[in-house]
Amino acid sequence: MKKLLSLIVASVVMCAALLTGCAGAEGSDSNGGSSSDGDFIVGAIYINSQNDTAGYTYAHHQGITKAMEALGLSTESNLKIIDNVPEDDEQVRTAIEQLAGQGCNIIFGISFGYLNAFAEAAEEYPEIVFCHATGYLSNDTNFNNYFGRIYQARYLAGIAAGYKSLEIGNNNIGYVSAWGTEYAETCSGINAFALGAIAVNPDAVVHVNQISTWGDQELERQAAEVLISSYGCGVIAQHCDSAQPQIVAQEQGVFGCGYNSDMASDAPDAHLTAPVWNWNVFYQLAMETAMNEDSASDFISNIGGNYYGGLTEGMVDISPLTANNAPEAAEAIELARDLMVSGQWDVFSGTALVFSGDAGSVSVEQVPAALMDNEGNEIVAAGGASVDDGVIQGSMNYYVEGVIAES
Amino acid sequence: MLDVITLFLFNIVIYSIPLLYATCGEIMVEKSGSLNLGVEGTMAIGAVFGFLAGCKADSLLVGVLVSFVVSAVVGSIFSLFTITLQANQNVTGLTITTIGVAVYFFVGNALGANWPYLRDCVRLNKSFSQIELPGLSRIPVIGKAFFSHNILVYAAVVIAILIWVYFEKTSTGLKLRAIGENPGAADSLGIDIVRYKYLHIMFGSGIMGIGGLYMGLNMGGTFEGSNCWINGYGWIAIALVIFANWSTTHAIIGTFVFGFFNTLRVYNMPLATAFPNSLGWLSKIPAQFFSALPFIVTLLVLIISSIRSKKTGGSNSPTAIGVNYYREDR
Predict the structure, then answer these.
(1) Residues in a beta bridge with A235
(2) One-letter-per-residue 3-state SS of chain A
(3) What is the pLDDT of residues B229-252, one digit of tens each?
(4) pLDDT, tens digit (0-9, with 9 covering 90-100), for A47-74
């Protein structure tokens, strides 16, 4: 009897919960289409929680809120977020439907695996602008993808690491990476970092320890430990979520370059600089474009297609250099930055930068040099132009000379 | 070359000890006839509160005590639901895991920038640093690997042995096992089943909490927004209980075997480089296989132990595990 009663109570509660859930979803009105600034609604779909205090979702959430504040949009009433959405087409589609129902004018999706659902939704909701981060799909009207030339910032961090390796007299530089040549994103980052380090210290070797997962603190820690203990690395760079590699560097008295956010507070005695994203640069541009246009179908022509901003636009940068850096680093980084910002030079070209001189008189020279992979194949002939953006974003699957895969 | 082996063994110990705490705790809980699937959550709660208290007081002892007490409270909630209110043990355990991990993130996110830095806690750090056991730590290779660890590593082994003694050599331990095997019979002997279950579930949960604290300290004590310290260890511990055949001394070996495969996924390359002739093949195995290995081994052990128990009745699995005891049903 007791069991029966509890079963009934449970089913009633469940039904009630389900019903109210449905009512909530259906009850929200839809008012898509163009609108004045006051009721411009921004939608966002996150892979992790909007309450995160660090990491990937946090960086995007900061970017979106910062952009909205700059445009005078209320992050309370004009921002609709659905977070903790896994990379599952069905769930992403549901999230998009909810956001469309709430009258969003523009919807951002921050995770790679959202791409198919976004491409479909863009056809289904032509009155809404869709922007998808890190992907490769887009259309000619209301759907683009956005990413940044983080490799440029990695090159700058590589310079800092290279000078540090010279200063401590240890050519072994470690790199904890989520993935290796499987993804152009990680691969181009490793290569750019290595090129930066080698531009300063031609004898530098970058040992890559790949953990084959995007997020596992414990593996990140162990990978960094191995790089230091087994390969004798004196600088630890990283392309993974947590600050564990930097913390290990701090514990073991070596140096490091973080990623995503300034990790100096995690490792004050170890941290040199970290490549960082300024997602707000794109978010503000996208929102502004969408707000000022008559129809969502003009979005692509107004914003100029897919977005791939770099140091020039301020989309990527490095965190402030700490006092742990070698004295020459700051000057050399500024010289390299100027060359990239002005568009005179880019990382993956047939021209190498060579730095010389002591602090106060660091100079840079552009030298024609073939870009070689670590198996001796020529990628770009000496003096040749940079590889295409498509390669950097999508098909780069080799390590450059000086990189050793250790896993 | 030997350095690689020493480091490899050293790391196996470092990363398998939290599993030993969790497994011992869960064995204690299961011996009382309850299956607690909330290990992950219990560890997470113990870890976060133990760490914060330990940092605040700058004392490892305070951290350990707080993580023990807080996790024991979580255990008492599990007991309240499953023993007093007769709720389903599996559902309650899963709920505790969900809530526990959520509490971990909630507390961490709420503190935000006020989250303490472990490196600022000088005394806590000192208490958690390596202690070289006199004499033993001088043995080549294995001395550094096994006898040069922080105090919580030694404590875990001592606790595992003490629990074994308690189960096998004391009358209260015997009574506890009786409850796990046949609560009706134990009840008829006048054993206070409710009190026994409550106390042992709370004690076992408390031990899990210390394991959680250990993981947090081992991770350098930083809170990351999307990645829990416990990292699935609570689940592995539940499998390890079966692996260890409900014996805490076997658990010492069981956790080491798990740690071995776990550490191998990072040390495969250094080992292959150091011993190219004998271990060079390690470098060709994909990382994903190493991640899957511990679970493949668990499956094999489950198969072997079920065959063995069929033949000889050799399984130590408490007969009444997972079944709520309701006196009126007797």
Answers:
(1) A173, A255
(2) CHHHHHHHHHHHHHHHHHHHHHHHHHHCCCCCCCCCHHHCCEEEECCCCCCCCCCHHHHHHHHHHHHHHHCCCCCCCCEEEECCCCCCHHHHHHHHHHHHHCCCCEEEECCHHHHHHHHHHHHHCCCCEEEEECCCCCCCCCEEEEEECHHHHHHHHHHHHHHHHHHHCCCEEEEEECCCCCCHHHHHHHHHHHHHHHHHCCCCEEEEEECCCCCCHHHHHHHHHHHHHHHCCCEEEEECCCCHHHHHHHHHCCEEECCECCCCCCCCCCECCCEEECHHHHHHHHHHHHHHCCCHHHHHHHHCCCEEECCCCCCEEECCCCCCCCCCHHHHHHHHHHHHHCCCCCCCCCEEEEEECCCCCCEEEEEECCEEECCCCEEECCCCCCCCHHHHHHHCCCCECCEEECC
(3) 998 899 989 989 988 889 999 999
(4) 988 887 777 888 899 999 999 999 999 9
Return residues 224-253 of A near B (CB < 8 Å). 225-226, 229-231, 241-244, 247-248, 250-251
ipTM: 0.84
The predicted model scores a pTM of 0.85
Q: Which fold has domain A38-137+279-309?
A: Rossmann fold (3.40.50)
Which of B227, B262, B283 to probe by mutation at the A interface, max A CB count within 10 Å?
B227
| Backbone torsions φ then ψ of B230, nearest 5 degrees | -70, -30
Query: Is any Cβ of chain B less than 8 angstroms from the Cβ of A407?
Result: yes
Q: Kindly report, as residue ranges, where domains of CATH 3.40.50.2300 are found in chain A.
A: 38-137+279-309, 150-277+319-405
What's the CATH architecture for A150-277+319-405?
3-Layer(aba) Sandwich (3.40)
